[in-house]
Amino acid sequence: MSIQSVKRAITILTLFTPETPRLGITDISRQMNLPKPTIHGLVQTLIEQDFLIQDKETRKYSLGLRIHELGTILSGTLKINQVGGSVGQRLARDTGLMVRLGTWDRDFVLITLNLFPTVDDSFLFRQLGLGPRVPAYCTGVGKAILSTFTPQALDAFFQRICMTGYTARTLTDPAALEAELEEARARGYARESEEYLHGLSCIAAPVFDAAGRATCAVSLSGGPGLPDRHDLSEPADRLRQAAAEISLNMGCPAALLMGMRKP
């Protein structure tokens, strides 16, 4: 049984997004269809606990430092980050490409770690607006995980989501995506080129847990031409090897992993 005030407070926090980082009482009241006095009381409580802060000039609210603190704790304690961070950093250094780790979350993928071959590269990719929560059907990490779904699970996924076109290259036809996922399954990694963000493409491989489920993925990101590089076989091999190593670290049985290995 949920407590209404707690549920409402959590809902307020979820209204803040990269597109709407600042909201006023009127904005929140309208989105939640609740009276302003009710919203004001909830917001004041969140401010007292440092979950929200208010800009003195605009009088609007944004997420507080307590959210960042909790996020840092979560990021550092997530198993995929703990066992995959060093492997991913080595992969970034060896390939000269950005590496991302992500985990499945309610039909989306939550990016848990971005790793760069050099410090300077991080600035460029931050400007692209990557994550932290990205759609599964038009991103490499998402397609990598989807490629492991059974036909029944994939059908259920398509029924739950709306395949919005983020760019002119986004696949919005389930049949076309299914065909691409079949190819990804055969080669052991998924491809994506400017389907979610202009100027960015990637290849990604699934990461399996102790039960043999692909709950996470690791990817290599670069410019639009990455999937068509003539020397793609080398970074793709390194990617698959990294995914296998992280899977073993996640507890996936070696025998099960060998059965999934692609030529």
Folded structure, characterized:
- This protein is α+β, with helices and mostly antiparallel strands.
- Helix content is 47%, strand content 17%.
- The chain contains 11 helices and 8 strands.
- The longest helix has 17 residues.
- It is elongated and about 60 Å long.
What's the SSE blueprint?
Blueprint: H1 4-14, H2 25-32, H3 36-48, E1 52-54, E2 61-63, H4 65-77, H5 79-95, E3 98-105, E4 108-115, H6 121-127, E5 133-135, H7 140-146, H8 151-160, H9 174-187, E6 190-193, E7 201-208, E8 214-222, H10 233-249, H11 254-260
Antiparallel strand pairs: 1-2, 3-4, 3-8, 4-5, 6-7, 7-8
Q: Radius of gyration over alpha carbons?
A: 20 Å
Number of strands: 8
Uncertain runs: none
- Percentage of residues in strands: 15-25%
Order of strands across the biggest sheet? 5-4-3-8-7-6
Return the string of H and E elements: HHHEEHHEEHEHHHEEEHH
* Major beta sheet summary: 6 strands, antiparallel
What is the helix fraction of residues, given as a range? Answer: 40-55%
Q: Figure out the total of helices.
A: 11
> Quaternary status of these chains?
single chain
Mean of residue pLDDT values: 91
- Structural class computed from helices and strand pairing: alpha+beta
